[in-house]
TrEMBL record:
<dbReference type="GO" id="GO:0005737">
    <property type="term" value="C:cytoplasm"/>
</dbReference>
<comment type="similarity">
    <text>Belongs to the RCAN family.</text>
</comment>
<dbReference type="GO" id="GO:0005634">
    <property type="term" value="C:nucleus"/>
</dbReference>
<dbReference type="Pfam" id="PF04847">
    <property type="entry name" value="Calcipressin"/>
</dbReference>
<dbReference type="GO" id="GO:0003676">
    <property type="term" value="F:nucleic acid binding"/>
</dbReference>
<dbReference type="GO" id="GO:0008597">
    <property type="term" value="F:calcium-dependent protein serine/threonine phosphatase regulator activity"/>
</dbReference>
<dbReference type="InterPro" id="IPR035979">
    <property type="entry name" value="RBD_domain_sf"/>
</dbReference>
<protein>
    <submittedName>
        <fullName>Calcipressin-1-like</fullName>
    </submittedName>
</protein>
<dbReference type="InterPro" id="IPR012677">
    <property type="entry name" value="Nucleotide-bd_a/b_plait_sf"/>
</dbReference>
<dbReference type="GO" id="GO:0019722">
    <property type="term" value="P:calcium-mediated signaling"/>
</dbReference>
<dbReference type="InterPro" id="IPR006931">
    <property type="entry name" value="Calcipressin"/>
</dbReference>
């Protein structure tokens, strides 16, 4: 495997990179994608892969993500990470090109890293809660709505008679209510239930 160790040609490119962003804003780690499978399984291939970056920073550390064919490389400074990204981005390792990207951790703008309590949306209506909020007042219940006309009409219906509520039309039949007979004597003509005879307890056995 042939890897070039000369980085003098990258100085001019790095000057333009440093002009675009402050070093304090640049990360100190890069992510390498499309890493060949041989780098994860062969010690010699892995050593040659690491040499690409150790020649730039002898203190670089490597974290391999085999399932994703990636590697995370941590450098001692941001400028070294920038040089490594430019120098090794797109070079061929074991016959396939690798890609190098800056690894930037996402920062949370809010100083509080805990989840906030959800907004109170519960409506405290008739039943008072166990701990009423400030300013809560009980709400009086409304009077029940009773249709006295309906009750009067039902009371005037005579038992045993039929009452037509809606006459029949061409498109719909009539609606007729048949009142039940007088329930006096109800059940007298039914067959009486058979009486359950209890089994007699046997007497004492003779010896």
């Amino acid at each position: 495997m042939d890897f070039s160790d000369d980085i003098d040609e990258l100085c001019e490119d790095m000057d333009s990179v440093m002009d675009m962003s402050d070093l304090d804003d640049l990360p100190t780690a890069i992510i390498v994608t499309n890493v060949p499978q041989s780098v994860f399984s062969d010690a010699d291939e892995q050593a040659a892969f690491e040499k690409l970056f150790l020649d730039l920073d002898g203190e670089a550390t490597f974290v391999y993500l085999k399932n994703f064919k990636r590697a995370r490389i941590q450098f001692s400074s941001a400028d070294t990470a920038g040089i490594a990204r430019i120098k090794n981005d797109g070079i061929f390792v074991s016959g396939q090109p690798i890609r190098c990207y800056f690894f930037q951790l996402r920062t949370v703008a809010d100083d509080n890293h805990h989840l906030q309590l959800p907004q109170r949306t519960k409506m405290f209506l008739i039943s008072p809660p166990s701990s009423p909020p400030v300013g809560w007042e009980p709400r009086p219940e409304a009077e029940p709505v009773v249709n006295y006309d309906l009750l009067s009409a039902i009371a005037n219906l005579s038992p045993g008679e039929s009452h037509e509520l809606h006459p029949s039309t061409i498109d719909a039949p009539a609606i007729v209510v048949h009142m039940c007979e007088d329930p006096v004597g109800f059940g007298t003509n039914l067959t009486p239930k058979p009486k359950i005879v209890q089994t007699r307890r046997p007497g004492p056995s003779s010896s």
